[in-house]
Amino acid sequence: MRRPAPPRHPSLWAGTLILALVLVPAALSAVWTPFPPGAIDIAHRLLSPSLRHVLGTDPFGRDVASRLMVATLNSGLVCAAAIALGGLVGIPLGLLGAAPGWGGALVMRIADLGLAFPPLLTAAMLVAAEGTGIAAEIVAIGAFNVPAFMRIARGGALSVLHRDFIAAARVAGRGRVAILLEHVLPNIGAILLVQATLALAIAALSEAGLSYLGLGMPPPLPSLGRILADDQARIFDAPLLVIAPGAVVALLVLGCNLLGDGLRDRLDPTLAPVR
Amino acid sequence: MIRAVGARLGGMALTLLLGSVIVFLLLNALPGDPALVMLGLDATPDAVVRLHHQLGLDLPLPLRYLRWAGGLLTLHLGTSLTYAVPVSQLLADRLRITLPLAGITLLLSVAIGLPVGVAAAARQGRVSDTAIMVAAQLFKAIPDFWGGVLLILLFALVLHWLPSGGFPGWEPSPLAALRALVLPALALALPQAAILARFMRSATLGALSEDFVRTARAKGLGTQAALWRHAVPNALVPVITLVGIQFPLLLTGTIIVETVFDLPGLGRLVLEAIDQRDLPVVQDIVLLLVGLVVLVNVAVDLAALRLDPRLGGERRA
Amino acid sequence: MSVLLEVEGLSLRVRRGAEYAYLLERVGFALEVGGTLGVVGESGCGKSMLALALIGLLPRGVAASGAVRLDGTDLLALPERARRATRGRRIAMVFQEPMRALNPTQPIGRQVAEGLRAQLGLGRAEADARARALLDRVGLPAGVASPHTLPHRLSGGQRQRVLIAIALACEPALLIADEFSTALDMGTQAQVLALLAELVAERRMALLMITHDLGLLAQVCARALVLYAGRAVEAAPTAALFAARRHPYTEGLFGCSLHAGHTAPGTRLPTIRGQVPPPFARGPGCCFAGRCGRVEPDCLPEQPPLHAAGPAHRVACLHPVVTV
Predict the structure, then answer these.
(1) Do C119 and B308 touch (CB under 8 A)?
(2) Do B148 and B39 share a domain, yes or no?
(3) Inter-chain touch C105–B229, beta carbons under 8 Å
(4) Same domain (yes/no): B105, B132
(5) Is the Cβ pair B209, A118 closer than 8 Å?
(6) What mean pLDDT comes out for the span A260-266?
(7) Exposed e or buried b for every residue in C71-97, given b needs 16+ CB within 10 A?
(8) Span B5-48, pLDDT tens digits
(9) What percent of chain A has a predicted confidence (pLDDT) above 90?
(10) Which domains does chain A have, with CATH numbers?
(11) Do A1 and C17 touch (CB under 8 A)?
(12) How close does chain B come to C105, measured CA to CA in Å?
C-alpha cells in the first residue's frame, strides 16, 4: 500500500491560513468592531486583556483590538492600491519594452531609476511638498513596484512572442494589441500573480514604516505603524500595546510571503527551489 | 572589462541626471508655496516676495534646476531655511551616524546570511535545513522598527546589556558609540540576513547541481572542498546582485531605525526638515540617498562582473 | 593480461515511496590493464549511472550493491575517505558537457592543478608547473591559452582538452569517458578523440567509454557491452559485434545507425519502435519484449540469462538473431 502523500504545497496552505487570520477580522471591521475604534474612555484606560477587551485598552481607553482591525483594513487597502498602481503602470510599460529596438534599454533605465527611489524617499518628497495623504503613500509605494512588474511583463512577453502560436495569430491577421491581450497576458498571468503576492509583503512593510514615521496616511485614520509609534513610550508598563500592532504586520508579511512562495511552486514548477 | 565599467558608469550618470530632475520637479513644480508655508498664512505680500527672492523662487523653473544641479556638481549645496547653515555641514554631521550604521548593517547581514544559507544548502532536506528556512521566513517578516522595539525590550529593559537609544557621540568614546549602534544594526540586519540566507541557499543548491561540481568531486575533492571552492563562488554572483536590490530598503530602514533608537542621523534630519518644510534640505538629502543607491548598485554590478566575467557585455537581467 | 577492473553483479536501486526500482540490475564485466571497453545503449539505459557508480559519485538516494573490484579491492566496500583517495588518482572521469563541466569562475590552470594538490599533495608551484605541462600536452600551449584563462574564453574543443588534462593529471589507471565529445562538431570531435586515444595508449590506461555513437565505439574500443533498461543484454569484441549481432536490441541499434547512410531515397529509416521502459515500469520478463519483433511467449515469465553465443560473445536472449 502506498502511504498518503504529504501536502504538496504546505506554504500555500499556511499562507492562506495566516492571511485569513489577519484579513477576516480586518474586513469585518468595515461593518462591525467590538467597540467604536475611536471611542475615548479615560475611565477604562490601559486595561489588561480581558474577555471584554481581548487585547486591552490604550492610554485613551480605546479598545486595542477594534483599532487594530480597522488599522489592518486601512493598511491592507493602501498596499493593495499601491500594488495595483505598480501593476497598471509597470505591465503596459513592460509589454511596450518588449518591442524590438530601444525597448530593452528603456526598460532597464526606468527600472534602475525606480529602484533608486525606495518608498520612503518618494514619500518624504511628496509629504514635504504637499503634506501627508493617502494618495501620496500609495504613489510612494506603488512607484517602487513599477520596475519589478515591468521586468516580468517584458521578460514574459519576450519568451512568449517568439512561440509558434503567436506567429499563427499574426498570420491570422490579429493586431498587435489584440495579440498582447489575448495571448501574452494570459501566459504571464501566473508569474504576475506570484509577483503581486510577494510585492504585497514588501508593501506591507513599507506602509508600516511610513506610517510609523508619520509619512503615511494622515490621522485620525488608524494605521498599524502609527499605533505602534504612538504607544512606543508605553513599552515599560504596557508592552502588549507595542507588541500587538507589530505582530499584525509581521503576520501579514509572513502570510503574503508564504502564499507567494506556495503559488510559485504550484503554478510554475520550474521556478521551485532546485530538487 | 574596461568597456563594461565605462558602460555602467555612463548608465549611472544618466540615472543620476534623471533622478535629479524627478527630485527637483517633485519638490518644486507641485502646487503649493513653501514661502507661504514658512511664513504662515498671515504673511504680508511684501515678505512673501522677499522670501521668494531669497530662495530664488522667482526665477523660472529650468534656471532654478540648473542653479541647484550646478551647485551639486561643484559641491555647493543649498542653505537650510530653518537652521540657516549650509546643508553640506548638516549632512556631514548626520552622515557620521548613518553611514556607519548602514555599513555595520550590511556587514552583519552578509556575515550572518551567507554562512547560514550555505549551511542550510549543505544540509538540504534534513531537519536542521527546514528549521533554518522556517526561522528565516519568520525573520523576513519582522518590520525593522518592531524588531528594534523588541530588541530594546529584551537587551535594554530586561537584560540591561545595551543602551535603549540615544547616541553619545564618537569623540568621548568610540566604543560607547559603537555600543549604541549594535541594537539598531541588529534590528536592520536580521531581516536582511534572513532574505540573504534563503537566496544563498537556493543559489548554492543550484550551483551544487552543476556539472563542474561533479568534475571537482571526480578530481578527488571532498564534499566540503567542492562546496566552498566551487559551488559557493558561483552562488555568490546572483547573491551579490540581490544585495544591490535590497540596499535601497536597507538604507531607508536606517532612517526608520534611527527614529526608534533616537539616533541623530540623516533620518532624523530629513524628518525634521519635512516637518519644517525645509525644502532645500529635503531635496539634497533625497538626492544624496538616491546617489548612494545608484553608486552601490554600480559597485555590486562590477563585483558580480569580477566574480563571473561571463556577465561582461550584457547587463544584469 | 592482468585484470584491472572487475564488476560483478552490480545493481543500483532507487526507492519511491514503498516501491523499489533498479537503474542497473546485476551488471558484470571485466577490463584488463590498458584495455578499452565501450558501453552502448539508448539514453535511459543506465549508462551514465554505471559511470557514476564506478567513480563513486552516485546521486543521493541511489543504493549500489554487488562488487566493483579495482586491482582486487572492492570499491563499494570502502569507506568514503578511502574511496575519495581513488578518485582522480586511480579512476578519473571526463564528463559529457564540456561547456558546463568547467567552473566558469576559475582559471583553467587552477582547475587542472587542483587535483594534483588534493591527491598528490604537491605544493602550489609544482602543481602549477605540472598543470602547465599538461595543458601543453593536450594541445593548449602558451600561445593558445594561458593557465590564467577563464573557461568562457575557450571553444568547446579547447574546453574538452582542459577536461582531458584534468582527468589525466594524476595518471589514473582507469579513465571513464561519458558521452565523450558528442557535444562537439564532427571535425573537432575527431581531433579530441584522436588525442584521447593517443594519451590513453601512451600511458597504458584502461578506457571505459560510454557512448551511443557506434562510430566512436568502432574507432576506439576493443570490446563492447550493450546495456538495455539497466541490464547487460550483449557483450562481445567490437569486431565480432560489427560482424554479427545476436540480440534483437543490438541489431535494432545497429540498424538505426549503420544503414542510415545508405538507405534508398523514399524508404523509411529503420528505427526501434517504442521507448526504453522507465525504471518503475519494468516487468519480470525480458525487458526488451515489449519492443521486440521476435518476441515469443517464453520471453515473458522471466529474464533470460546471458549465455555464450560465440568466442567471447555473450547474449541474453532466448531467440537470438542468426545471421546468414
Answers:
(1) no
(2) no
(3) no
(4) yes
(5) no
(6) 87
(7) eeeebbebeeeebbebbbbbbbbbbbb
(8) 888 888 888 888 888 998 888 888 766 676 776 676 677 888 88
(9) 25
(10) 10-26+62-268 (1.10.3720.10)
(11) no
(12) 5
Residues of A in contact with C15 (CB under 8 A): none
Q: How far is B190 from chain C (nearest CA, A)?
A: 30
* DSSP secondary structure letter of residue C278: P
Residues in chain A: 275
**8 A C-beta contact, residue C296 and residue C319:** yes
Contact B101, B181 (CB under 8 A): yes
C-alpha cell of B195?
532574505
Q: In B, residues 98-117, which contact A (CB 8 Å cutoff)?
A: none
Do B161 and B253 lie in one domain? The reply is yes
Mean pLDDT in chain C? 86
What is the average pLDDT across A215-225?
86
Q: Residue A55: what pLDDT?
A: 79
Q: How far apart are the first and last CA of chain B?
A: 18
pLDDT band at C269 (very low <50, low <70, confident <90, very high): low
Residue B205 near chain A (CB below 8 Å): yes
Can you give the pLDDT at residue B121?
93
For residues C133-159, average pLDDT: 87
Helix, strand or coil for residue B198? helix
Q: Chain B contacts of A126, Cβ < 8 Å?
A: 26
Q: Crossing angle, helix A64-97 and helix A224-231, to 10 degrees?
A: 130
Contact residues on chain B for A228, CB-CB shorter than 8 A: 145-146, 149
Give B218's contacts in chain C (Cβ within 8 Å). 55, 57, 87-88, 92-93, 95, 167
Mean pLDDT of C22-36: 91
Instruction: Using a CB–CB cutoff of 8 Å, tell me whether B140 touches chain A.
Output: yes
- Number of A/C CB contacts below 8 angstroms equals 5
C-alpha cell at C67: 562488487
| Residue C181, C-beta contacts closer than 8 angstroms, at least 6 positions apart | C98, C160, C188, C189, C192, C193, C196
Say yes or no: A274 contacts chain C, CB-CB below 8 A. no
Structural contact between residues C65 and C14, judged by C-beta atoms closer than 8 angstroms: no
Contacts with A129 (C-beta within 8 Å, 6 or more apart), sequence order: B26, B27, B30, B32, B279
pLDDT band of residue A272 (cuts 50, 70, 90) is: very low
Confidence at residue C108, expressed as pLDDT on a 0 to 100 scale: 92
B81 within domain boundaries: no
**Mutation for A interface: B26, B154, B272, most A CBs within 10 A:** B26
Residues 21-80 of A with CB under 8 A from B: none
Question: Is the CB of residue A3 less than 8 Å away from at least one CB of chain C?
Answer: yes
Quote the distance between the C-alpha of residue B168 and its chain's center.
23
Instruction: Report the distance separating Cα A82 and Cα A148, nearest Å.
Output: 13
Question: Going from the N-terminus, what domains does chain C have, and what CATH number goes with each?
Answer: 34-60+78-221 (3.40.50.300), 244-324 (no CATH)
Burial class for B236, CB neighbours closer than 10 Å (0-12, 13-18, 19+)? buried
Looking at the structure, do residues B35 and B102 belong to the same domain, yes or no?
no
Looking at the fold, whether B203 and B170 belong to one and the same domain comes out as yes
Give the residue, A30 or A142, on which the prediction is more confident.
A142
Q: Do B289 and A121 touch (CB under 8 A)?
A: yes
Domain boundary among B16, B46, B73: B73
* 8 Å CB contact of B219 and C105: no
By C-alpha distance, the chain A residue nearest B272 is A128
What is chain C's length? 324
Q: Which residues of chain B have pLDDT under 50?
A: 313-317
Among the partner residues C84, C104, C169, nearest to B222 by beta-carbon distance: C84
Q: Where are the beta strands (DSSP E) in C41-118?
A: 62-70, 73-74, 91-94
Residue B145 sits at the chain A interface (C-beta within 8 Å): yes
CA pair distance B46, B38, nearest whole angstrom: 14
